[in-house]
Design a protein that fits this description.
single chain, about 240 residues, alpha+beta, 4 strands
Length: about 240
């Protein structure tokens, strides 16, 4: 048998997710078409019968579960999985609308602030119904493991978001420190490219020691040629 439900479109809002689903041609249209399959769903999720059902004349889903659209059962299956995660909030609800001109298509609206969790629950619910309305053979779906998988999926995404947030904060901190260091540099004046002013040609007078005075007196009595020879070679200042 082909895949029971094909999710053809998803719209995500701030508080709800709406998915258009198409039921395979060889799948039962109503839960009453395969009561054994419907019973399998009940045994997997016994609390599903306690759901309030606002779209029908009955107060709970128990009264209509045996004769309702399979898409309606899909909605309640997804809501039950969300409820078992304990991380979906307290305002869980859903509605199912028939699509005009297509008797095997429905829009399922699920109210929950976490769109990733809702999408995961809807996909998991479709696989549970796939198992229930085929032959129900082993292995039997592990609902607890499915719920834990949904929780782990959301937690892993939260961890990734936190890691990205830390990296972003560290990057911003480095940028702020760089800007602060840049602000602390001395500002250049208007004559930024101007050459430094030349020093006065006048050199400070040096106080000569007595030995230097004696040497100078001796040089004054020395012939010019000998004096030049005794002077050290000039050094080039760079």
């Amino acid at each position: 048998m082909s895949q029971f439900f094909e999710i053809t479109r998803v719209e995500v809002g701030p508080r709800k997710l709406t998915a258009r689903v198409h039921l395979a041609d060889d799948a039962p249209l109503m839960t009453s078409d395969d009561l054994e399959g419907t019973a399998r769903v009940y045994y997997l999720l016994p609390h599903i019968v306690d759901h309030v059902c606002l779209g029908d004349s009955s107060k709970t889903f128990k009264d209509v579960m045996g004769n309702t659209e399979l898409a309606h059962l899909l909605e309640h299956t997804a809501v039950e999985l969300l409820a078992q995660t304990d991380i979906a909030g307290d305002t869980l609800s859903g509605r199912t609308f028939a699509v005009p001109d297509d008797p095997r298509a429905w829009d399922i609206e699920l109210v929950c602030t976490d769109d990733v969790l809702v999408a995961g629950a809807l996909v998991s619910a479709s696989w549970l119904l796939q198992w229930a309305y085929t032959d129900g053979s082993d292995p039997k779906p592990d609902v607890k493991a499915t719920v834990q998988g949904l929780i782990a999926m959301v937690e892993s995404l939260d961890t990734t978001d936190e890691d990205e947030s830390v990296v972003e904060e560290e990057s911003e901190s480095v940028e702020e420190e760089s800007e602060a260091m840049g602000d602390g540099e001395p500002e250049l004046g208007e004559d930024e490219g101007a050459e430094p002013e030349a020093m006065d040609d006048e050199e400070p007078e040096l106080e000569l020691e007595e030995d230097e005075e004696a040497e100078l007196a001796e040089q004054q009595n020395t012939p010019a040629d000998d004096l030049l020879d005794s002077m050290p070679e000039p050094r080039i200042l760079r």
